[in-house]
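Illustration 12: Permease.
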Amino acid sequence: MGILLVGAIVIMNIDNLLRIFLARRMGNIHPLITLAGVVLGVEIFGILGLVLGPLLLSYFIVLITVFERENRIRRRTRLGHASETATGAE
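Figure caption equivalent — predicted structure in token form:
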């Protein structure tokens, strides 16, 4: 019984640590984002939060990155049109 208990504790801890580092390597996700996603996901979704938490948090970060990139492109094109009309009016 003791060997089973120690084995389960060791295997679960190694699994938790490896999952964080593999997620970072495979998906370029920072381990703190994964950890925060797991903690918040379990609080909100229960046991499904182990998967849904980091996934939703990663999707949110990607969404913010895409939004920021699109706004940067729009700002450049808007400034480009403004400078063309300013130089064309002179």
